[in-house]
Every structure is written in structure tokens, then in C-alpha cells.
């Protein structure tokens, strides 16, 4: 979502410069700064920015520099003379001989400078829109460049989780055997081996082993990992969907951890969580 774009051009003896930047945000938060002369175009401009950039904390600045000494301000000569005469007379009444700053004071008086408001030239605004479009294109190019690096990092994290999930198989069978042995030993110590009902013991053992079985969690996590990669390769903006998939991955990893009952398997789960947190952080940068 982050990016920066800039473009400039000359229109009607004016230098127009457009700068636009975007930061991460859950929705489109658009701030437009432009001279009051163009304010009537702010609402359609916001709509255009929203359409092009979709999401992010976006700030657009439009600067106008007049060329060849042009200005739409004129001095109100009559009012200037009146201010100057009145202030000069007041200075004499107060015996203030040093009035060298009187001209500067008068220039700052209300309405001395008057602005001539002209109607906005639609052709001029069309040309400005092209400059804005160029700046937005530069920002999008920046986003695409950053997105490629982000894509590589996300795929690496998913690959790491997939590799860690494969390591679960190393401890799964031995973990179940250890659970069986521990339950049998505890039962023998409690009631004696000769007093154990073998059939009932097998039934109870199956019940407890099912509680520790992680086959479903491994299958669902694999499905989520594949779906994440499939969504990441989509040509559409899928940042929010990737976030949702990441949440589902987290649920399966947490359940895997709660059922682990094995120190080595718990270590793998911790590593998975670490990779997933990095994925969640990066997904916030995606549209």
C-alpha cells in the first residue's frame, strides 16, 4: 500500500507540481491539498483517487507556481492612499517623526491587496488531471516494485511453515506410542497390571489417542497454505482475503500446539507461529 509519486508540467504560464504518497490503512483515507482556486474539483478528484488507489492513507499535494511575473493580485490604490494619509496624519499628531516603515504597514492593511477571481478553465483542469494521473501512475509503479519484494517474502514464510509441518511427521508416531506407554504405566501403578480390563483399556486408549490426533489439523493447514499461495497469485487486490486466510492458519497451528503433548512438537509450533506473525505483518501492506 505504501508508495510515492510525483509529476509536474507547465500550463497557461503556470508550473503545476503534484506529489502523492500513500501509507497503510484499512480503508481509503484521502487528504487533498490544493489552491482554493481549484477547490470545486476536490470531490471528483477524491473519487478518482479512490478508484485508482483503492486503499491507504493517501495525501495529494498540488502546487502552483506563477511564471513570468504573473499574479492575480492587484493593489487597491485608492484604499492604499487613504490608509497612508490617515496613518501619516496620525503619526504627526503623535509627534512620531520616524515613519519609514509606514509603507510596509499599509501594505498589510485589510483589502489593500485584492484578488481577481477568474473562472476555472476546464481545459486547464484537464491538463492538470493528466499530471495527477502521471503522479498516481508513478505511485502505482512504486507499489508494484515493493509488492514483488513482498510477494517473495510471503512465499518464503509459507514455504517455511510447509517445511515445519513436514517435520511434524517425524514425531507424530513416536508421540502416540509415548502417550500409550505413559497411560499404561500409570494405570498399572494405580490398579496393578493383572487387574486391568484389556478390552476396556483399549477402548479408553482409542478415545484419548483421538483427542491427541492432529491429522485433521495438518490437512486443513496444508489446504490453507495452498489457498494462501493461490490467492497471492491472483491478479486482483486480495489483501483482506490473505488476512482472513492467515487467521485460519493461526487457528490450525494453535490447535496443533494444544494437542502436541510433546516438547519437540511444541518447538515446531512456536516456529510456525513466528513465521505466521511475519506473514500477518506483511499482509497489512497489501491492497
Helices and strands in order, then pairings?
Blueprint: E1 3-11, E2 14-23, E3 28-33, H1 42-53, E4 56-66, E5 73-75, H2 77-93, H3 102-107, E6 113-115, H4 122-191, H5 198-212, H6 215-232, H7 239-260, H8 263-283
Parallel strand pairs: 3-4
Antiparallel strand pairs: 1-2, 2-4, 5-6
Q: What descriptive keywords fit this protein?
A:
single chain; 287 residues; alpha+beta; Ribosomal Protein S5, domain 2; four-stranded mixed sheet; two-stranded antiparallel sheet; 6 strands; 63% helix; elongated
Major sheet strand order: 1-2-4-3
Given as residue ranges, the uncertain stretches (5+ residues, pLDDT < 50) are: none
- Report how far the terminal alpha carbons are from each other: 6 Å
The proportion of residues in beta strands is: 5-15%
Radius of gyration: 36 Å
Tally of helical segments: 8
Describe this entry's structure for a reader:
With 287 residues, the chain is an alpha+beta fold. It folds into three domains: 3-70 and 120-143, Ribosomal Protein S5, domain 2, CATH 3.30.230; 73-115, no CATH class; 147-283, no CATH class. Helix content is 63%, strand content 15%. The strands form two sheets. The chain has a four-stranded mixed β-sheet. It has a two-stranded antiparallel ribbon with strand order 5-6. A hairpin with a 2-residue loop joins strand 1 (3-11) and strand 2 (14-23). The protein starts with a strand and ends with a helix.
Amino acid at each position: 500500500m505504501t508508495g510515492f509519486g510525483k509529476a509536474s508540467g507547465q500550463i497557461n504560464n503556470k508550473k503545476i507540481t503534484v506529489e502523492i504518497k500513500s501509507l497503510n490503512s484499512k480503508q481509503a483515507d484521502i487528504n487533498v491539498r490544493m489552491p482554493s482556486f481549484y477547490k470545486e474539483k476536490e470531490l471528483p478528484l477524491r473519487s478518482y483517487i479512490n478508484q485508482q488507489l483503492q486503499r491507504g492513507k493517501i495525501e495529494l499535494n498540488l502546487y502552483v507556481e506563477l511564471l513570468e511575473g504573473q499574479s492575480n493580485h492587484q493593489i487597491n490604490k485608492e484604499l492604499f492612499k487613504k490608509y497612508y494619509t490617515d496613518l501619516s496624519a496620525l503619526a504627526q499628531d503623535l509627534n512620531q517623526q520616524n515613519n519609514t516603515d509606514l509603507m510596509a504597514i499599509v501594505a498589510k492593511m485589510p483589502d489593500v491587496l485584492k484578488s481577481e477571481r477568474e473562472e476555472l478553465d476546464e481545459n486547464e483542469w484537464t491538463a492538470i488531471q493528466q499530471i495527477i494521473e502521471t503522479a498516481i501512475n508513478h505511485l502505482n509503479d512504486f507499489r508494484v516494485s515493493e509488492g514483488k519484494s513482498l510477494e517473495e517474502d510471503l512465499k518464503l514464510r509459507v514455504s517455511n511453515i510447509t517445511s515445519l509441518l513436514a517435520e511434524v511427521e517425524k514425531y507424530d508416531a513416536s508421540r502416540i506410542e509415548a502417550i500409550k506407554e505413559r497411560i499404561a504405566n500409570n494405570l498399572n501403578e494405580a490398579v496393578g497390571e493383572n487387574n486391568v480390563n484389556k478390552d476396556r483399556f483399549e477402548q479408553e486408549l482409542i478415545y484419548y489417542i483421538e483427542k491427541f490426533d492432529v491429522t485433521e489439523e495438518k490437512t486443513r493447514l496444508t489446504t490453507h497454505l495452498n489457498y494462501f499461495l493461490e490467492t497471492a497469485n491472483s491478479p486482483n487486490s486480495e489483501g483482506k482475503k490473505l488476512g482472513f486466510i492467515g487467521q485460519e492458519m493461526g487457528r490450525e497451528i494453535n490447535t496443533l500446539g494444544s494437542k502436541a503433548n510433546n516438547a519437540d512438537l511444541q518447538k515446531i509450533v512456536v516456529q510456525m507461529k513466528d513465521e505466521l506473525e511475519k506473514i500477518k505483518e506483511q499482509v497489512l501492506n497489501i491492497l
